[in-house]
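seq:
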Amino acid sequence: MDEIENDEGTKKIRIGEQPITLTLKKCELLVTNGPTKGTRVMMDKGVFSIGSKSDNDLVVNDGTVSRRHAEITNTQKGYLLKDLDSTNGTFIDNVKILEAYPNPGSTIRVGNTAIEFAPKDEKISIFPSKKNKFGKMIGSSLEMRKIYGVIEKIAPTDITAIIEGETGTGKELVAEAIHRFSHRASKNLTIIDCSAVAENLIESELFGHEKGSFTNAISQRKGAFEIADGGTLFLDEIGELNLDLQPKLLRALESRTVKRVGGDRHIPVNVRVVAATNRSLEREVKEGRFREDLYFRLAVVHLYLPPMRKRKDDIPLIVQHFIETYNSRIAQGTKINGIAEDALEALKAYHWPGNVRELKNVIDRAITFCQGDLLKLADFPEAVVKGGGAVAESASASGSGAQSGEFLGIPDSDLPFKEAKDQLLENWEREYIIALLRKNDNNISKAAKTAGIDRKSIQRILKKFNLTAKDL
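struct:
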């Protein structure tokens, strides 16, 4: 596993590369002069506040220090110290600043209090786990065992993490494992899918609302942060979060408080946040679609989940798990004892554009059609048997839909011409919209722009075929 560290100190663990260490950026602040002399605190998050008010990260009981005096932010260029319109100013090595980057060993002065600034890196050795499953995740490949090793290290902490991977790779299972093996396991794991909540309701979903704060707000309601208090909040598809709401999320993370829609009270919350995305958030930041400061705050650890096509050696173990799960659920009837070798080889040859989720659906279908106690090649879809995943990938990459009659599903020639034509067009429409959305990161707005149609047209087609963008 190769740990790649950006200038801003974000740790990215790229699964599938050589392992070294996980480096966590931390900063120690030591009060060297003033009423709270000797106080020592470790900064291990994106933004760190200094002031006399009791909810600051470093509380300075000094009458010359403002309630919210200054803050230190971990940015792309390093630690940035900002004065927050304090009464008596903020200084670095006796130079008054509005904002500046202190050097290691610099003395920060707020009021009559002097603070020594000492960045410190904590290096954690990460070794692949020896397990072939972790929580609900299945896989003995090196790529997966490295992920298990990382989770084992970070789960007991309160480190925030971003999980990046294609749709269907199991990002939610990683979040569940992080929660399950943490000290928060006895509390709630609250899940919010940012792509599934209407833009005008997402703020209420996250932060709650007061009665009468908007139409249909007939009663007071807690948001996800309050529900998750003491536990873990999993923000799925964080890349879909509206830019206008991102500053409010950042404030909630930094202040550890939330304000309900229509309310005026800041409610304390104790929540660990894990986020997931099928996009490259780094690219989203560069293109102005995701706030840089929020990204840095979330991506203390950045996990990349490999697609199914990159860990095909795990397929036999995963298939066996699905079979065992099926067998455990049936009280009577024929149980499945395994899968034929040629069928297993076909599964390993397939490209799996839908990843583990697609594999599960294919196995469930095969079990339904199975005539005995062994899954055979004939029980599987023709696209899988003939390696249709490569076709699907080609369609997805080009955005042009299916590329062959077999992939489209040429109708029976016994059908009347008009019925056959309508069926073929319907097949094409379905495959085109799937490929279009996959090419555009399952983002309906981007897909509509690429195709030259409006969002409602895509939503209509999805509804017609009982599809959702998230599941493609």
